[in-house]
Specification:
- GO terms for molecular function: 3'(2'),5'-bisphosphate nucleotidase activity; metal ion binding.
- Its cofactor is Mg(2+).
- This is Inositol phosphatase.
- One of its GO terms (biological process) is sulfate assimilation.
- The radius of gyration is 17 Å and the shape is globular.
- By secondary structure, it is an alpha/beta fold.
- The model has no long low-confidence stretch (mean pLDDT about 95).
- It has two domains: about 120 residues, Fructose-1,6-Bisphosphatase, Chain A, domain 1 (2-Layer Sandwich); about 110 residues, D-Maltodextrin-Binding Protein, domain 2.
- Strand 3 and strand 4 form a beta hairpin.
- It has a five-stranded mixed beta sheet with strand order 1-2-3-4-5, with helices on both faces. A five-stranded mixed beta sheet has the order 7-6-8-12-10, sandwiched between helices.
Length: about 240
């Protein structure tokens, strides 16, 4: 099984597990989110260690170890990206299974179980992108839209589209439901590794909001900002962000 096949398989199975946990009716709200996180994390981490024992591993739900810093290959996972949305019985949450090689997001799979069983976007199976909308759609946080996104959107005559998890937003651009995901409110490596790998494989522009590359497997896992967008719009978005600073 290739790395990409493994990532997709694990993301899909973890998504099914999470749907089953939610359907059990044993938990609700924050308790449901916590139960889902713990259950999916146990499965993903055990499976990755069994299948790729020589690789490093970073998960949002596991205590970090500096051992990964000496590894060329590091799996970076988010068992439930959008725990709030998952707990609220919404569809805009995701499972991230990414592989960083030499600090770059090279392989990834993002499952979107809320959209239906088996909905997994993969770095090894890119699909053609559709046309760019005349009025670009900017994906933003449901509760804390980024100032840069709001101002660039206004300058480009775009439309703000609130959505839940980072993975759901990034995959909305891949799926053609939006053109731009501009985030400046802070994230962590597990929020974007798998989505960036998938988005880049589909030909989307992926960078920090100053245009610099996104690097993974750092000692400090915090990543302040992110831009995933249609390549045709990247130069204008980056120019407008720079003008705000």
């Amino acid at each position: 099984m290739t790395d990409a096949e493994l990532a997709a398989h694990l993301a899909e199975v973890a998504g099914r597990i999470l749907i089953e946990v939610r359907a059990s009716a044993m938990f609700e709200g924050k308790a449901l989110g916590s139960a889902g996180d713990a259950t999916a994390n146990e499965f993903l981490c055990h499976a990755i260690r069994a299948a790729r024992g020589d690789d490093g591993l970073l998960s949002e739900e596991e205590k970090d170890s500096t051992e990964r810093l000496d590894k060329e290959r590091v799996w970076i996972v988010d068992p439930v990206d959008g725990t709030r949305e998952y707990g609220e019985q919404r569809s805009d949450w995701a499972v991230h299974v990414g592989l960083s090689i030499g600090g770059e997001a090279k392989v990834g799979a993002v499952a979107l179980p809320g959209l239906g069983s088996g909905t997994v976007l993969r770095s090894d199976r890119p699909t053609p992108l559709g046309p760019v909308a005349a009025r670009p759609r900017f994906l933003v946080s449901r509760s804390r839209p980024a100032r840069e996104a709001e101002e660039v959107c206004a300058g480009m005559g775009g439309e703000l589209v609130p959505m839940g998890s980072a993975g759901a937003k990034a995959m909305a651009v891949v799926r053609g439901d939006a053109e731009i995901y501009l985030h400046s409110g802070g994230q962590y490596e597990w929020d974007s590794c798998a989505p960036v790998a998938v988005a880049a494989a589909h030909g989307l522009h992926c960078s920090r909001i100053d245009g610099s590359p996104i690097r993974y497997n750092n000692a400090d896992t915090y990543l302040p900002d992110l831009l995933i967008c249609r390549a045709e719009l990247a130069d204008e978005v980056l120019r407008r962000v720079a003008a705000l600073r």
